[in-house]
Amino acid sequence: MKITIIGTGYVGLVTGACLAELGNDVFCLDVDQSKVDILNNGGIPIHEPGLEDVVARNRAAGRLQFSTDIAASVAHGEIQFIAVGTPPDEDGSADLQYVLAAARNIGRYMDGFKVVVDKSTVPVGTADRVTAAIADELAKRGKSGAGFSVVSNPEFLKEGAAVEDFMRPDRIVIGHDQTPEGQRAYALMKKLYAPFNRNHERTFWMDVRSAEFTKYAANAMLATRISFMNELANLADKVGADIEAVRHGIGSDPRIGHSFLYAGCGYGGSCFPKDVQALERTARDYDQDLLILRAVEQVNDFQKHVLGKKVVKRFGDDLSGKRFAIWGLAFKPNTDDMREASSRVLVDELVRRGATVSVYDPVAMKEAERVLKLDFADDAKLFERISFAANPMAALEGADALAIVTEWKAFRSPDFDRVKAALKNPVIFDGRNLFEPQVMADSGIEYYGIGRSILT
Ligand code: NAD
Ligand code: UGA
Q1: Other C-beta atoms within 10 Å of 218: how many?
Q2: What pLDDT score does 213 carry?
Q3: CA distances (Å), 370 to each of 9, 269, 329, 338, in order?
Q4: Nearest ligand 2 atom, CA 335
Q5: What would the pLDDT profile of 3-48 be if each residue is shown by its tens digit?
Q6: 153 closest CA partner among 175, 179, 131
Q7: What number is the average pLDDT over the span 295-310?
Q8: What is the C-alpha to C-alpha distance for residues 2 and 25, in angstroms, rounded to an integer?
């Protein structure tokens, strides 16, 4: 099938590459010329395991192309996926300017029937706005008869596992309407996703608004589980319990399950923070206050400061003359994405309290440097207190303590004798509970996990 993907970021590039892998003829559009140039020169603009190979293979096979040519992109696909960003607006709502700009472009150039797929995460009711934007452009061209239908097909992939998640989805959610155009869209979407449903049916067909809502409900539920565990972890620290033991104890109940119960130094990324806010905002528009989600957000804001608070409790308010090593900068492992990363909050707190920091991340160093420079745009001198280490051990040299923010595999079993030898004090603040408190105690390391105070 001929497919167009509008927006070649995390979701658009993965969707385009994976649909090409299934044999479709895919045209990826982006307004960012530099991204398109990287892709056309054989590179990829993001770090995502396995993606480079899929892109290369399908480009070579002539099934995957990248361009900034809007008219050609609209002409290409009978199915047009909108996968542009929906960042938070000042009031927390999802900013739909990119989605609506993409919709208007479709209306401006389309000739013949199109299925327009909202793949971006968009608030309930957005399909109606996309429909209106396209219809408006068609009317301007005197082409109000040209058929199209807008469907909602939210994406559930996780960064760092995006190709695997896309190729082996738990479920595919598709919302369409019951008009003749909606039925035609249903048939085309069914054909497109048929390869995913071969062994068992994974697609949930529903109305458009329910599909839009499902995406926010999923992210809000996952964020709620994390904040719930983080709040309990903070209490575990006070009462002398181990949140890891508690996690096993409750996760073994199949009604609860083990996933997404890891306490830590807060959730980040481009999705949970913005989607929780956007759902709260939608509720407010309908005169409802989502009390649980408000608390989820507050707990997460607090949690991003928990490592900083532990450092201050141990080393004092004034950290001048102190140096801290930080392992892990990306918001999670296997990505170089720094959006809403907890590391930014910790670096900010330490540096503004007078400390210097030496940071290391296996893949996010370049992106971290770019982002931290912007974070300290108000005072470039503060940015100079950050040094970017070549490897984890180099980051430790002369540091008073180590803080771990991202649970990269490479940090899981370091040589603790070397760690102790490199640090001025054998102190580890572990924001992702990578190590066992007993092992740390036996190694002579002063260890502060999240909710693991039973032995410290
Ligand atoms: P992104 O910022 O990585 O990519 C968006 C791309 O769209 C950019 O390259 C931008 O240049 C391009 N763009 C903007 N306006 C355009 C236009 N009019 N025409 C063509 N291209 C345009 O964003 P992302 O992380 O891929 O997220 C996209 C959407 O998918 C968001 O709504 C997000 O919430 C959702 N989502 C993201 C993830 C994820 O893991 N990142 C997972 C599921 C859903
Ligand atoms: C999340 C969802 O998991 C995806 O299903 C969804 O498609 C995506 O958002 C989206 O809508 O964009 P992602 O943000 O890539 O995916 O990463 P997650 O693995 O969900 O992690 C998000 C944050 O939560 C990370 O900072 C991670 O460290 C934190 N986390 C996760 C915890 O603190 N504890 C956990 O138990 C799990």
Answers
A1: 16
A2: 98
A3: 18, 16, 12, 10
A4: 15
A5: 999 999 999 999 999 999 999 999 999 999 999 999 999 999 999 9
A6: 175
A7: 98
A8: 5
Query: Is the CB of residue 35 below 6 angstroms from any atom belonging to ligand 1?
Result: yes
* Domain 2-206 identical in fold to domain 223-455: yes
User: 1.25.40.10, 2.120.10.80, 3.40.50.720, 2.60.120.260: which CATH number matches 2-206?
Assistant: 3.40.50.720
CA of 412 to the centre of ligand 1 (A): 32
Q: Please give the pLDDT value at position 453.
A: 84
DSSP class of residue 377 equals T
pLDDT at 143 (0 to 100): 87
What is the rounded average pLDDT of the residues 144-170? 93
Ligand 1: distance of its center to the CA of 76 in Å?
20
Which amino acid is present at 175? G
Over residues 330-340, the pLDDT tens digits come to 999 999 999 99
Are 1 and 188 spatial neighbours (Cβ–Cβ below 8 Å)?
Answer: yes
Query: What distance in Å separates the CA atoms of residue 359 and residue 366, rounded to the nearest whole number?
Result: 12
* Residue 18 a catalytic site member: no
Ligand 2 lined by 339 (C-beta under 6 Å): no
Question: CA dihedral in degrees (71, 74, 77, 81; nearest 10)?
Answer: 130
Q: Has residue 181 got a pLDDT over 50?
A: yes
Please tell me the residue having the least CA distance from ligand 1 atom 10: 7
Domain ranges of the chain: 2-206, 223-455
Nearest ligand, CA 278? 1
Number of Cβ within 10 Å of residue 61's Cβ equals 11
Strand order in the sheet with 323-327: 386-388, 356-360, 323-327, 401-404, 427-430, 446-448
148 backbone φψ class: left, alpha, beta (φ>0; ψ -120 to 50): beta
Specify the CATH class of 223-455 in words. Answer: alpha beta
